[in-house]
Amino acid sequence: MGSIDRQCTRVSRVNTLMTEASSHRSAYGAIEAGGTKWVCAVGTGPDDIRAETRFPTTTPAETLGRAMSFFRDAQANEPLQALGVGSFGPVDLDRTSPTYGSITSTPKPGWAYTEVASTLYEALGVPIVFDTDVNVAALGEHRWGAAQDLEHVVYITVGTGIGAGVLIGGQPLHGLVHPEVGHLRLPHDWQVDPFPGSCPYHGDCLEGLASGPALARRWAQPAETLPPDHPGWRLEARYLALALVNLICTLSPQRIVLGGGVMEQPQLFALIRADVQQLLNGYVRSTTILEQIDSYIVPPALKGRAGVLGAIALAQRGVSG
Ligand code: ADP
Ligand code: ZN
Question: Which of 21, 44, 48, 84 is the most buried (most CB within 10 A)?
């Protein structure tokens, strides 16, 4: 455990006592730290957001600087119990690592090995609870959205990249590093789909075949301009269904929430559900999948708010947990 981490733990214990002693309306900070934009908020949940700002992700110094100045202003009004951060990655979630709370080997220019949690902790002096953007979105949907009262949940975003947050027993799954569902390898029929894939590491992994930029390159037009009956959507649904089946067989989630820009195409849901049932071929004997698949594979209830609200949920869990 590094010294900052030890300090965080100590401050966290102090804050636990403070939380118990103070009113339930204590404020929490939240950051949805995306590769395109950051959203910062102060509050306790969807019905109690006391301040919010958003700004584009530029350099680490400028972006972290804007976040720190927002929370310093907030702290002038009321103390923050903790700050939850859901970050783009890959990130270091190993609490024993000297680089805990950092973005690690990202290809995003200027951002590799950026110390996010320790920089925020040193500036603000509140406990920082840090996780992946997708684990945090999963927590948001679990707490206030489409996966309430379920303990085993997968949240997948299909956008510029593809990623999944996984809750097992209500806890975000980290494991060795953290899941990298976007880089699952899938069967790829080169006769049907000669597109080689767009992932710089793997070519035709899930993200290389089915992310928004992959769709744009395969069809030579932005994904949002493909008509709803374009054959590209059937192929897209097939790849996503193959990924879902792999996740269903390994993790046995009770519900799968599918979000992100590409999932704004509503016709995808019916295609994916039918393909999942066909690919499983009746083997997973659950009425949830066999008879209620419409409520098994669902869109997010919080829409674009899952990340920032999930970061509030993360901060609350970090302090009381
Ligand atoms: P990000 O992944 O950067 O956080 P989004 O989840 O909005 O952001 O994903 C952006 C990607 O989703 C882009 O590749 C874009 O082309 C695609 N996209 C956005 N809106 C739609 C839409 N209505 N239909 C299909 N694809 C879309
Ligand atoms: Zn890949």
Answer: 84
For atom 7 of ligand 1, which residue has the closest CA? 261
Spatial separation of the C-alpha atoms in residues 321 and 316, rounded to whole Å: 8
Same-domain pairing of 188 and 95: no
The three-state secondary structure class of 153 is strand
Report the C-alpha gap between 53 and 64 in whole angstroms: 13
Q: What is the best residue among 262, 305, 308 to mutate for testing ligand 1's pocket, by most ligand atoms within 8 Å of CB? A: 262
* pLDDT-based confidence at residue 219 (cuts at 50, 70, 90): very high
Whether 19 is covered by a domain: the verdict is no
Instruction: From 145, 138, 141, select the one nearest 166 (Cα to Cα).
Output: 138
Domain span including residue 221: 146-300
Peptide bond into 299 cis (omega under 30): no
263 within ligand 1 shell (Cβ under 6 A): no
Q: Answer whether residue 12 is part of any domain.
A: no
pTM: 0.91
